[in-house]
């Protein structure tokens, strides 16, 4: 009784192993595809969980935002971390900081009632 | 003892369910039949408006985010380092920079939460599911308000750093004159 399954297993091994051995290229391609799918999954998970998704203006449907972002690409050197502290360096910092602070304070971002019933004409008449 | 504990757990669970259903009922009560009709009527226009807002907000997030990072990485941090390398005490400025970076992290997270909420609104068909659309809209509105308050706090910190720098500069120049 015990000989029959054993024989089947041996027969099975004999039929599958040579098939794989005969086609190592198929195994290589299948393995490569599986590894690629796994790596793409990991990359997309990181893309989503890290918040990059929300910052990515190259997504479809963000054409106008992309155009706006390309317009103002000026390089800001900033304040050097090296050097002495004296009247001139402090005044240089003050000038640069005031410039950037004014830029920041000029826009009250995400405020207002952009999602209010009034804006979306959902106020009961 | 066991019975009392079980009864306590059941009471707390029931209270939780009641509170949750009351909140949900309150949200649903706000949506009158008239509002449902308006949501359906304005559906296409509102979807276009919300899509535009989604794009504008994405640009604004990038723009403000870059600006805030520039202020921190190219102004606050280099000045703090320079003060340290010149053996000057910039204690207040250091604290404010740390506050700014903490608040920036909140801004980063708050925008993700808001963007997800707004995307959810855009995914709902307002002609077929007006109530779900309105609920999602109310949620997105609340998250936008939270994002706005986080952003306002960032602006306050920028002003605070500027004021602290002015104090430092005045003190430094006064000491330089005395020497």
Write structural notes for this entry.
- The complex is a heterodimer of chains A (125) and B (179).
- Chain A is mostly helical.
- Chain A has five helices and no strands.
- The radius of gyration of chain A is 32 Å and the shape is flat.
- With 179 residues, chain B is mainly α.
- Helices cover 91% and strands 0% of the residues of chain B.
- Chain B contains five helices and no strands.
- Chain B has helices spanning 2-29, 33-41, 43-85, 91-123, 130-178.
- Mean pLDDT of chain B is 86; it is low at 18-29.
- At the A-B interface, helix 4 and helix 5 of A face helix 2, helix 3, helix 4 and helix 5 of B.
**Biggest pleated-sheet summary of chain B:** none
Report how far apart the termini of chain A are.
Answer: 86 Å
Strand content of chain B: under 5%
Oligomer: heterodimer
Low-confidence stretches of chain A: 7-12
Low-confidence stretches of chain B: 18-29
**What is the β-strand count of chain A?**
0
Percentage of helical residues of chain A? 55-70%
Q: What is the helical fraction of chain B, as a range of percent?
A: over 70%
Overall pLDDT metric of chain B: 86
The biggest chain-chain interface is:
A-B, 50 and 66 residues
How would you describe the shape of chain B?
elongated
Q: Which structural class do you get from the secondary structure elements of chain B?
A: mainly alpha
Q: How much β-strand is present in the residues of chain A?
A: under 5%
Rg measurement of chain A, Å: 32 Å
Task: Report how far apart the termini of chain B are.
Answer: 77 Å
Using only C-alpha atoms, the radius of gyration of chain B works out to: 25 Å
Please state the average pLDDT score of chain A.
82
């Amino acid at each position: 009784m015990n000989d029959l399954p054993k024989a089947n297993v041996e027969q099975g091994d004999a039929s599958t192993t040579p098939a794989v051995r005969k086609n190592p290229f198929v195994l290589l391609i299948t393995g490569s595809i599986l590894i690629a799918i796994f790596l793409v999954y990991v990359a997309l998970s990181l893309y989503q969980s890290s918040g990059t998704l929300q910052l990515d203006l190259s997504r479809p449907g963000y054409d106008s935002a992309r155009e706006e972002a390309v317009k103002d690409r000026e390089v800001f050197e900033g304040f050097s971390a090296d050097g002495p502290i004296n009247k001139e360096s402090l005044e240089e910092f003050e000038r640069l900081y005031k410039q950037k602070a004014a830029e920041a304070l000029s826009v009250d971002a995400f405020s207002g009632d952009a999602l209010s019933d009034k804006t979306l004409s959902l106020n009961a008449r | 003892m066991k019975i009392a504990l079980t009864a306590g757990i059941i009471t707390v669970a029931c209270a939780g369910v009641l509170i949750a259903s009351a909140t949900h009922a309150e949200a649903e009560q706000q949506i009158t039949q008239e509002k449902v009709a308006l949501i359906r009527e304005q559906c296409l226009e509102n979807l276009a408006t919300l899509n535009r807002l989604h794009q504008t907000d994405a640009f604004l997030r990038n723009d403000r985010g870059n600006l805030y990072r520039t202020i921190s990485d190219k102004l606050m941090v280099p000045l703090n380092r320079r003060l340290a390398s010149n053996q000057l005490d910039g204690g207040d400025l250091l604290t404010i920079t740390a506050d700014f970076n903490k608040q920036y992290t909140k801004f980063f997270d708050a925008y993700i939460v808001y963007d997800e909420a707004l995307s959810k609104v855009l995914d709902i068909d307002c002609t077929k599911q007006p109530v779900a659309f309105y609920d999602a809209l109310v949620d997105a509105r609340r998250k936008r308000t939270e994002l706005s308050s986080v952003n306002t706090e960032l602006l306050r910190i920028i002003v605070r750093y500027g004021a602290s720098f002015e104090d430092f500069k005045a003190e430094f120049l006064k000491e330089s004159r005395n020497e």
